[in-house]
Design goal:
By secondary structure, the protein is an alpha/beta fold. It contains 9 helices and 5 strands. InterPro entries: Ester_Hydrolysis_Enzymes, SGNH_hydro, SGNH_hydro_sf.
Length: about 190
């Protein structure tokens, strides 16, 4: 039986040729161009119904375009991870860092990524840091990887896949977890 992987995300994920790059998996690209973390939260019932073997999450950059704060994006990503873990305890989950954009977004994205990196293990979610492979030293999306500081070129996708492939291999090395740690609301 082929292992199924559901990709959740925005236009960056929609643009990926995941079936081509990962032919060994049954790919379900559930991403939608323009998706925000709110949109992914709203689609979780449909994801749960599919019961994929693994889920790859990559969303949040469009929230920044709508001027949502880093706290807002972090809370939604935490809720996505917690909800998926609670409802799909046997599913392996990988959350990816937000990709770099223009320099103006660098500190906000670093803040989001730092929080998600810290939170993911509490939900037995593996974190994949794409920032080092795609960012310039000043925090911009590398010029070879984009033409508009947001969308990826073929070289950008190649760099992403080069990080995602070992990330998926590690995701499947360990057994899935069956327990989540609840979110503490203030």
């Amino acid at each position: 039986m082929t292992v199924s992987i559901a990709f959740l995300g925005d236009g960056l994920t929609v643009g990926g040729q995941w079936e081509h790059w990962f032919p060994e998996y049954d790919i379900l690209n559930l991403a939608v161009a323009g998706n925000t973390t709110d949109d992914v939260l709203g689609a979780l019932d449909a994801v749960v119904e599919l019961r994929p073997d693994a889920i790859v999450i990559g969303v949040g950059t469009n929230d920044l375009g709508w001027r949502k704060s880093d706290e807002y994006v972090v809370r939604n990503l935490e809720t996505i991870m917690h909800s998926l873990r609670k409802r799909l305890p046997e599913t392996r989950i990988l959350v990816q860092s937000l990709l770099p954009r223009g320099k103006d977004f660098a500190e906000t994205i670093r803040s989001i990524n730092r929080h998600i990196w810290q939170y993911a293990p509490t939900q037995y979610v593996r974190y994949l840091d794409l920032w080092p492979a795609l960012s310039t030293p000043d925090g911009e999306l590398g010029p070879d990887f984009t033409e508009d500081q947001l969308h990826l070129t073929d070289a950008g996708y190649e760099a992403w896949v080069a990080e995602l492939r070992p990330g998926l291999e590690m995701l499947f090395e360990l057994p899935p977890s069956t327990t989540s740690i609840p979110i503490q609301h203030a």
